[in-house]
Amino acid sequence: MDQFLAFTVVGLSTAAIYAVIGSGLVLTHTTAGVFNFAHGAAGMLAAFAYWQLAVGWGWPVPLALAAVLLVLAPAFGLLVERVLMRPVQALGEAERLVMTVALLTGCIALARWVWDPNTPRPLSPFFADRPALRLGPTAVTWHQAVTMAVAVAVAAGLWFLLHRTRAGTEMRACVDDRALAGLNGADPLRAGRLAWVLGIQLAAVGGILIAPTVALDAQQLSLLIVSAYTAAVFGRLRSLPLTFLGAVVVGLLEAYLAGYLPQNDYLPGLRLAAPALLLLLALLAFPHRRLRGRDRRLVPVPLPGRRGALLLAAAVLVLALVLVTVLSEDALVSYGAIFALGVIALSYVPLAGYAGQVSLCQLSIAGIGAVVWGHLGAHGELWALPVTACVTAAVGALIAVPALRLSGIYLALGTAAFAVVLDRWIFTLPAFDVLGVRIALFDQGSVSVTGPDLFGLRLTTPAQLLCLAAVCLALASLGVAALRRGRFGRRLIALRDSEAAYATLGGRLLGARVAVFALSAGIAGLGGALYGMQLQTVTAEQFNLVAGLPIFLIAVIAGLGSVGAGLLTGLAFVVPTQLLGELGSWAQDLSALLIALAGMGLAHSPSGVIARLRTEWAPLARSRTLLGVTGGVLAGCWLLAATGAVNGWLVLAVALAATLALRISAAARHVPTELPPEWWGVRRPWRPEDGEVLSRATAAG
Question: Roughly how many angstroms between the first and final C-alpha of the chain, as a whole number?
């Protein structure tokens, strides 16, 4: 009984922290309409800042707490609201989701850049020098007592704010109807600012309270938010009392699992994955109309032409040929992952771009593909490659069945929870038997991955594996483009536009979702196998949730509706990382920070970079003369680099400068012709002034 009470006290103390963090998450969502994936990262930055002030610089604890909670956290909240979230407020739910994912990635990269992750930073609990309080047979530390007292104070303070102050009434009014609240004298912008400031402050309080009990690690502290997610979902993202109840459930569950879970090789990861599993169950067990709401602000999905798809496939193969002939073998090892990661990124196009189903577990599925190929294709058996794609497709189909109840940010939450379950539990399992079949994943270590035996030719060198990945990316890109032009692609677009209308017209939601999830997972599994071949040895850490977020961000920046997103993602992920890595260890996390900053600029180009590039380079593509000159210049630069006559970096600079000059020349020669009004928004983007022009023309007529 004494042990049970001790675990209960620990669970309630942890639950108090989750309640504080979860209440800030609910406050931000209900007031600003944004589900902040970076909520835990804000608490993580606050914990690091508190350590820096109190331990690193020796400030008194009260002064350090005041600086973090009353200065830094509110300033960060105002910065996020004004610079990041307000520009995307008029955009769709998906764009706001991507913005917070970019903020999460950026916060983790910034923390790793500023504070060396290899240096331990212990943080003492509050009042650690005082003896514990005795409640009968149970001891309660002062830190635990402070934590629970803070949770009670937060609950009382939020209730008073929301129900007994004008600002709280204004915030609750803006939740129900922002426009109507504005007509009655409320200020939605002021309510949003207050919500962001309070939300970030509550995240900071939770981060500082939990930091002494765990390692001060950027990724671990940021992912502790999964438990707060679960508490918030218990409250259906709007009820603070239910959020506190959910926090108690999560905290006690973690404590009791830590104390009573049997000790064997298969269950330790279950305790770590329990909050994510509980989050999945909460998402499925608490149906609510807000969970099924869809955003109506949709970005158009371009229809790829056959000529364009063939040119893209040819560009992939030509780029592979250039890399193989120009780079050394060591450089090919570094840059060889371009096409494999491109295949993984391409899996987002049919799922998120065509069908509108946001998934954050694609890299985790790719990890399954790498493991399956590593075991089945250990001796290069070529048949294991399609089997790998089929196995991961089956995993995708299994995800799709429960995901039918979810959409939007809740689907993203569910897939993120699935990735965390894989990271913390499934990937850590030793080999086991199911119905007499031996199943081995990472087997608590690493898995060796080799290349396939292609009709008697064993592909083992970096150049051979790079060419194989390039061919797979080219064929997969052609297949995804053909899918968009076909009947199934049109059905996916209809599913994305309106699930209700799709079902009303006779479409089968379950069948369509299962098919697109399976297809996307099969592509990701193939990419994971190719990526494993490039790495030769894979571990579970290479396929976790945080590792997959930059790939998702680059795919979104490129344009999820564009088939070229796969190639562009591979280039943008690998090339800057390798170039910056040559500057020294201090620049290792700089590439992730730059990716996050690019994702935060999504409001300026919600359709993606590829759509803008297509418009800007179209004049050069139309001019056969200049296009031929461009091809000749690039071919000459390639020959100079391949023969080693000129330094490769100089050749690259000359090629880029010449290509840009020819594009500018083509744009200067091209005189755009005015399209008839009926083609506005179809053959050229819709402009803000077009509506006024049409209104005047109609009135004059």
Answer: 87
Q: What pLDDT was estimated at residue 291?
A: 41
Report the predicted TM-score, pTM, of the whole model to 2 decimal places: 0.87
Report d(CA 347, CA 524) in Å as an integer: 6
pLDDT on residue 295: 45
**Which residue type occupies 590?**
L
Residue of 341, 86, 112, 87 whose CA lies nearest to 221: 112
SS3 460: coil
In the three-class reduction of DSSP (H, G, I as helix; E, B as strand; rest coil), residue 454 is classed as strand
Which residue, 338, 362, 363, 341, is CA-closest to 350? 362
Report the alpha-carbon distance of residue 566 to residue 556 in Å, rounded: 11
Nearest to 47 by CA among 193, 195, 165, 220: 220
Rounded distance between C-alpha atoms, residue 392 and residue 403, angstroms: 16
Query: Hey, which residues does 458 pair with through a beta bridge?
Result: 453
- Quote the pLDDT of residue 466: 93
* DSSP state string for 323-383: HHHHS-HHHHHHHTHHHHHHHHHHTHIIIIIIS----S-HHHHHHHHHHHHHHHTTT--TT
Beta carbons within 8 Å of 601's beta carbon, 6+ residues apart: none
Distance in angstroms (rounded) separating the CA atoms of residues 501 and 349: 22
Looking only at the bridges linking them, the beta strands covering 437-439 and 133-135 are: unpaired
Helix (H) or strand (E) holding 81: none
AA identity, residue 257: L
Q: pLDDT value at position 370?
A: 93
Q: Mean pLDDT in runs of 10 for the chain (701 residues)? A: 78 88 84 80 92 92 93 92 76 73 88 86 83 76 88 88 77 60 65 85 91 83 80 81 87 84 78 86 69 52 84 91 85 89 95 88 94 89 92 92 77 89 87 73 82 84 92 95 90 81 76 92 95 91 89 89 91 85 68 79 71 78 78 81 70 78 73 62 67 64 52
- The phi and psi torsions of 347 (rounded to 5 degrees) equal -65, -20
Distance between CA atoms of residues 671 and 370, nearest Å? 51
pLDDT the model gives residue 186:
65
CA distance 421 to 502: 32
Residue 310, SS3?
helix
